[in-house]
Amino acid sequence: xxxxxxxxxxxxxxxxxxxxNLGTTSDEAGKFSLSNAxxxxxxxxxxxxxxxxxxxxxxxxxxxxxxxxxxxxxEVVVKKNMPRDKKIINKLSDRTExxxxxxxxxxxxxxxxxxxxxxxxxxxxxxxxxxxxxxxxKAKFKVHLYKVGEDGAPGADLLPVPLxxxxxxxxxxxxxxxxxxxxQIPKTGVFIAFEWLILKQNxxxxxxxxxxxxxxxxxxxxxxxxxxxxxxxxxxGWIYDQGRWRSTDExxxxxxxxASPHFQLTLSN
Length: 269
Prior knowledge:
Elements: E1 2-3, E2 14-17, E3 23-25, E4 42-46, E5 53-56, E6 65-66, E7 86-89, E8 99-102, E9 108-113, E10 124-134, E11 139-148, E12 154-157, E13 163-167, E14 170-177, E15 190-196, E16 203-207, E17 214-226, E18 237-241, E19 244-247, E20 264-268
Parallel strand pairs: 1-6
Antiparallel strand pairs: 2-3, 2-4, 4-5, 7-20, 8-17, 9-15, 9-18, 10-14, 10-17, 10-20, 11-12, 11-13, 11-15, 16-17, 18-19
C-alpha cells in the first residue's frame, strides 16, 4: 500500500473484499496479505488522507497506489490559555458486560451524536472517551470523527490526521484529546468511530487452562470495545462491514446489533 505521489508506504489502511466477510489492515510498512479466497475479487481500500479506492485482487505480490486527498491548510491561531467551560455528552457508565471484538475483520464501529442547540455555548470537540477490554498490554486501534454523509451514514473525516491509540491490558477508560484540532461539532451532528487494526502485535490466542496450549481457532484481535446491550434504545450505532456502512439497527442474526459502541464526548468553548 503506497502513496501514489510520494511512493511512501501507507500504514493502517482499511482493506475489505467487497461484500464479503474478509479483510485486513496494512501494517506499519504498508504491507498486507489476504487469503487466496480474495483472488479475482474487488478490494475496497480506505485510509484518512486518501481517496477511497476499489482495485482488483490477484494472486502473488500486488501494489495498491492510493491517491492523496487535496486539502487546504487552515491558518493556525494561537489562543491564550484561559479557563474553558466544558460539557460532557453521553457519559460513560461502569458497566462493561457488553463488548464487541474482532476475530480478524477490520470492522469500524461508530456512534452518531446528534447536534443540540445547547451545544452552541461549547461548540468545540475537546475529548473522546471510551472503555476498552484487552488481554494484551499495548493494543493499537484507530479513532475517527466523521461528518454525516448525504445518506445519513458516516461520511468525510473531520480531522486532518489519523488518531492511532493504544489500550492497556484489562478494562481501561481511554481518553483521546482532540482539542488541538480546533474542530467544531457540525450542526448535522458527528459520528465517533473505533477501528480494529488487524496487526500481528494485536493478536491474542486463548490458552487451555489445564495444558497451557493455544486453543485452535480462538484468535482475537485486541482490544474489545464497550458497547450497549441488545435491548438498549436509541443506540445510533453503525458498522463498516464488507466495504460499506450499515446501521446496527439491522437485525440480521449475525450479532451486528451488539456492535453499537458507547463513546463519551466532551465539548468546550
